[in-house]
Amino acid sequence: MRPPELQGVIRRRILVNFRAEPEVVRRLLPAPFKPKQQAGHALVGVCLIRLEAIRPTGWPAWCGLSSENAAHRIAVEWEQGGERREGVFVPRRHTGSRLNQLAGGRLFPGEQLAADFSVEDAGGSVRLRMQAKDGRTTVEVVGQETDALPASSCFASVEESSAFFAAGSVGYSANHGGARADGLELVTDRWTVRPLQAEAVSSSFFDDRSVFPAGSIRFDHALIMRDIPHRWKALPDIALGASGCCV
Questions:
Q1: What pLDDT, in 10s, does the model give residues 82-108?
Q2: Is the per-residue pLDDT at 246 higher than 50?
Q3: Has residue 132 been placed in a domain?
Q4: Which residues pair with 122 in a beta bridge?
Q5: What would the DSSP string read from start to end of 63-119?
Q6: DSSP 8-class letter at 56
Q7: Which domain holds residue 89?
Q8: For residues 131 and 189, what is the distance between their CA atoms, to the nearest angstrom?
Q9: Residue 245 falls inside a structural domain
Q10: Helical (H) or strand (E) element with 161
Q11: Strand ranges, E, within the chain
Q12: For labelling alongside 38, which of 2, 19, 65, 246 has CA 20 to 30 A away?
């Protein structure tokens, strides 16, 4: 049975982006995925997203659910049906919703692990911490909305960064014992981002030197989106080949 299309509102979405050495990232990816590059860098990161009024398309908003969620992502490209595709590969998903955890990978694409979220969000200032209940993964972001990217970013402008990540609205995550990847497409009624000036950023996954050796990864920039109506659409899954590293 095909999963239902869902709709709701992205109340807050933070994209924390790191640039990394393509060969290091390539080892994390199962076939057919390859790192999508920007100015010679692979782009990896964390999507921290608060969803509200999530319900099957056409249902009234009052019956929708809200949740805090996190996804570690790798910008990728691949060939499918003779055409080049692009999106993100998601090695880890976490949620603060028990329902999302139970439904993920079963009733809806993408297995999700349980996590606790602590969020302060007021006046354009955000402080967010995620702690996975299994103790494997932590994420922390402290930042303030601003108007420009850091001068050190590999993107020349906010517009260039926005276009890069808007093209990555299709996400795949391993499921079925790692043999196949579930597909999910984010469809937004509008796409508006602002830079988030990061005062502190950490991810235990990207800080793991057994996965990312010293000097192979650096924080690039963060973006924030607010109050975006959207839909989630399930996509046909993809058969996966072996990757060089277990994540």
A1: 899 999 999 999 999 888 777 766 656
A2: no
A3: yes
A4: 125
A5: G-EEEEEEEEEEEEEEEETTEEEEEEEEEEEEES-HHHHHHBTTTBSS--EEEEEEE
A6: E
A7: 6-239
A8: 31
A9: no
A10: helix 158-166
A11: 6-20, 34-35, 37-38, 41-56, 65-80, 83-95, 113-122, 125-132, 138-145, 170-175, 180-188, 194-203, 217-239
A12: 246
